Amino acid sequence: MEVSSPGRICLFGEHQDYLGLPVIAMAMNLRLQINGRKRNDKKIIIHLPDIGKSVSFLINNSINTKPENIFRSGVKICVEEGLNFSKGFEVEIISKIPIQAGAGSSSALVVTWINFLSQIADNPMLWNREKIGQLAYKSEVLEFNLPGGMMDHYSSAFGNFIYLQSEPKITIEKLNPNLGYFVLGDSCEPKDTIPILRRCRDMRLNIVQKLIKRDPNFDLHSQDQVDTSFLSKNEQNIFKATINNRDILSKALPELNKDDPDSPFIGKCLLEHHEILRDVLDVSTIKIDNMLDAALDAGALGGKITGSGGGGCMFAYAPNNPEIVAEAIEKAGGRSFIINSDIGTSVG
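Structure (tokenized):
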């Protein structure tokens, strides 16, 4: 059995979804693939040749104990959802998505794993894409009490372009803009995702709580004129950045609802978003900024860091000359991948 899922880039709403604010993401044609077959015992064996490791465990142990990795948590969640596994299985996982680089590799892995489990179970389930994304988020984030949002999981499950709102309830709108090519650039700088997510999330949730305490009717989704004089200067800047990022998405969304968007306008919005992430949230790096500058000098229309930041990947929007932009990113020290949108998780 073969199951695959895409990585993703976040166009708009980076570091916003865990605040309950909307995001726009693009699933890309760099994919992770699981190939597997059933065994005659109850052992699950997972080969990870990309990192030179293997993982193995017994099915019953993953169900009855607190999960120690996403493979165990995925099995646990699926059993809780009614799947039965009387036999184990052996799989190989290979990926073209840069690993631990802000391109959605871990979420593509858990989405693919959930989809694989739903098909190899004794009682296979035809879960829809929203269900797969929901269970993947639960398996990777909620089960381990981590600070991330759900954008990556739904993007990988649905594919192509999505507009995701998580409040007041989860709604996913498929977008179909003809944007053309992007170039993903991997800085190859190591990143420590969880501390960055906690810092960016916790400091802003704290600000929101202060604003709600001051005004119980405060709504991060809609309010602009807010008295922030009682906040520190740094808190005021962070709050303003959060509102500005919200508004950048709002002005880009109508353009992305068109069949043929204004490409220079989208590029400009991406750059505005990156500047806030760089200057206020402090999640970019010198190397990533140099890679983005090189891409712009080579003719890219815009771009930004993608993922939690502190290293990892950026992308440039280059619908007209992706090869030239890719070469410029390479010369700036990055690994480049010419990408476009791709379908979501799929079997076979």
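The chain has two domains: 2-176, 182-339. The CA atoms of residues 90 and 317 lie 39 Å apart.
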